[in-house]
Design brief:
- The protein has one domain.
- The protein is built from three helices and no strands.
- It has helices at about 10-45, 50-80, 85-130.
- The longest helix is centred in the C-terminal third of the chain and has 46 residues, at about 85-130.
């Protein structure tokens, strides 16, 4: 005998629907910004100032991946509204994807900060070397 799951009511499903729609819109925007920043990074990396290109590539990957995971979260929240009998499973799936997205954002922010610090140090060392010449 299969245990039935809690089913959210119409008012609660409206909240999930609105949340799904907003996350989807924001995620689409983040994916577009990510692709743009990544593309700029690839173009700039061939210029003399490589640090800016690497930073743009990391930023682009950050935006794209967060947007991509956001789309999955939005899809799972929408499934709560669109289906019957699996609301808790879809809610837990959405929360799991959200947790992955936040963890990814955390580590990409750390990586981005490390690259930024390396670029600043490179700039300071390069400027000090240039003034000695």
């Amino acid at each position: 005998m299969e245990k039935t799951q809690y089913e959210f009511n119409e008012e609660q499903e409206e909240i999930f629907s609105e949340l799904s729609e907003k996350i989807s819109i924001v995620s689409t925007f983040l994916i577009m910004i990510g692709l743009f920043r990544f593309s700029i990074g690839i173009l700039v990396i061939f210029a003399p100032d490589i640090g800016i290109g690497v930073d743009s590539i990391i930023d682009g990957a950050f935006y794209f991946l967060i947007g991509f995971l956001g789309k999955k979260v939005a899809n799972d929240f929408q499934k709560i509204v669109d289906t019957q009998g699996n609301d808790i499973n879809y809610l837990m799936s959405a929360l799991s994807e959200l947790r992955k997205g936040v963890a990814l954002a955390f580590w990409l922010l750390i990586l981005s900060a490390m690259v930024w610090v390396a670029v600043v140090i490179h700039g300071i060392v390069g400027a000090a070397t240039f003034t000695q010449i």
